[in-house]
Amino acid sequence: MDVLTPEQRRKNMQAIKSKKTKIEELLAKKLWNKGYRYRRNNKSVFGKPDFTFRKYKIAIFCDSESFHGKDWEAQKHKIKTNTRFWQEKIKNNIQRDKIVNKTLKENGWKVIRFWGEDIKKNIDFCIAQIETELEKRKNV
Q: Which CATH number fits domain 6-138: 3.40.960.10, 3.40.50.300, 3.40.50.1000, 3.30.70.330?
């Protein structure tokens, strides 16, 4: 049973963005300030990564813990409302992420995925990972 009215739930769900989320914006600003130029939400790349460096075939995804199933086996039991729907939805998201990773790797892309909390709490580490991969790809 949902604790919110249908109208409240509808407004909550409408407020969830798929592009230009806070975690994406944090990473974007840091990359831009360091002089890196990238493409955002590139539809021509399978899986529509949040950031792409097409020349170096690097795809970066910024995943929220709740929608992409971080520690899923431990967390799935904490869903209290609309349980069946959300467990199925998140399970499908996890499966889709695996397919996207596999497909991109098979096509020569380096896939980097960051959890939202990692971006918020340790953005310099995330930037260092991207820089390391860019350097590797530049020298190939």
A: 3.40.960.10
